[in-house]
């Protein structure tokens, strides 16, 4: 309505190419800081919350450009699994049912710009159940005294999961 009435520009929060590129600076920062912190060692994997795909898309482009062997792992709520299904079927899919998740920042769907990036550069997507999202979010508070939203806790849930550790036992 505002775009039509005021002539304002609409910048999509996850599917706009400039937003995706901006999110790529997170990937650059991860690579640089890991090298500084671990005396020149490179990242082996990054786990990124996955909703509309802008953040994981930008991070994947940057990380894969700098470290092609680094794994880029998506963390998606099992109740909002459009990216998982889209990647598996090789085509952009929407939610097939109403989305109900505590990770409300991840309720969005992939877009026409983010889907090809996820399809080509994201190595794997892990689906996370609601209880695991809540538990990981709570664990970050209890152990680190950091208050994070469930949409961030989902990445911790993947990293702590038996499925992830079994799939990637050699990651440090």
From TrEMBL:
Q: For this chain's UniProt record, which GO biological process terms are given?
A: D-serine biosynthetic process
Cofactors (names):
pyridoxal 5'-phosphate
The regions listed as transmembrane in this protein's record are none
- Is Ribonucleoprotein tagged as a keyword? no
InterPro entries in the record: TrpB-like_PALP, TrpB-like_PALP_sf
Provide the alphabetized UniProt keywords.
Pyridoxal phosphate
- Native organism is Spumella elongata
Protein name in UniProt? Tryptophan synthase beta chain-like PALP domain-containing protein
Q: State a single Gene Ontology molecular function.
A: L-serine ammonia-lyase activity
UniProt-listed Pfam families: PALP
Start and end residues of each Tryptophan synthase beta chain-like PALP domain:
2-162
Family, similarity comment: Belongs to the serine/threonine dehydratase family.
């Amino acid at each position: 309505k505002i775009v039509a009435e005021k002539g304002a520009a609409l910048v999509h929060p996850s599917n706009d190419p400039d937003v995706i590129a901006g999110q790529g600076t997170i990937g650059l920062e991860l690579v640089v800081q890991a090298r500084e912190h671990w005396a020149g060692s490179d990242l082996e994997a990054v786990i990124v919350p996955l909703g509309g795909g802008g953040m994981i898309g930008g991070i994947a482009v940057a990380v894969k450009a700098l470290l092609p062997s680094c794994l880029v792992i998506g963390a998606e709520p099992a109740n909002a699994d459009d990216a998982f299904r889209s990647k598996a079927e090789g085509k952009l899919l929407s939610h097939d049912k109403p989305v109900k998740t505590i990770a409300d920042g991840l309720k969005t769907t992939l877009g026409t710009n983010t889907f090809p990036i996820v399809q080509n550069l994201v190595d794997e997507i892990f689906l996370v159940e609601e209880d695991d999202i809540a538990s990981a979010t709570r664990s970050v508070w209890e152990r680190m005294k950091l208050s994070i939203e469930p949409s961030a806790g989902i990445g911790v849930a993947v990293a702590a999961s038996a499925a992830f550790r079994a799939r990637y036992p050699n990651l440090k």
